[in-house]
Amino acid sequence: MSETDTPYGTPFGDLLRAANDAGHSYRKLAESAVDPTTGVAVKYATLYRIARDEPIMLGPGVVGAVAAAIRSAIDVDERDVRKAAAQQYCGLIADDPFNASDGETSVVVVHAPGMGRKDMPRVEELLRRYAAGELPPELSGENETSS
Asked: Residue 43 — φ and ψ, nearest 5°?
């Protein structure tokens, strides 16, 4: 664990270090560090800071740019990069505690560290009902009243 390690781990930094270990310098990675949606670009110094588990100014475009850089070097899904950033910088865990994802559907639940399936019975019930085509009225709009 580094001196700058966070209480939530350093998965975002770990991904950048893996890209660097694969033979790509942070300067080389920065050439690909452009978010395809927003056009936000990050420089090698930002990539280096993330790899050293240091704080950065974080936004969706920055995470997308870092994901593009990492994906230019190693095989990783953009969603996994975004989940790693959320964990490291926001202290949130984004995963599938119900093992409900399959080839067609991804289930991602954002929760506090230490929470598991047993701590989220209402979420599990909602997913079960959704999969059965029984969307609750509060989510389907059927329960809305006009004033």
From this structure: -90, 170
**Euclidean distance between CA atoms 86 and 13, whole angstroms:** 12
Give pTM, 2 decimals: 0.70
**Rounded Cα distance, 32 and 72, in Å:** 7
Residues 71-105: pLDDT tens digits? 999 999 998 999 899 888 888 888 888 888 888 88
Per-residue tokens: 11: 């998965």
Residues 103-121: what's their mean pLDDT?
A: 83
- Range(s) of the domain holding residue 26: 1-90
Quote the CA–CA distance of 105 and 92 in Å, as a whole number. 22
**Whole-angstrom distance, CA of residue 115 vs CA of residue 123:** 12
| Same domain for 65 and 113 | no
Whether 146 maps to a domain, the answer reads no
Residue appearing with tokens 């694969």: 22
Residues 10 and 47 in one domain: yes
Q: Per the structure, how many domains does the chain have? A: 2
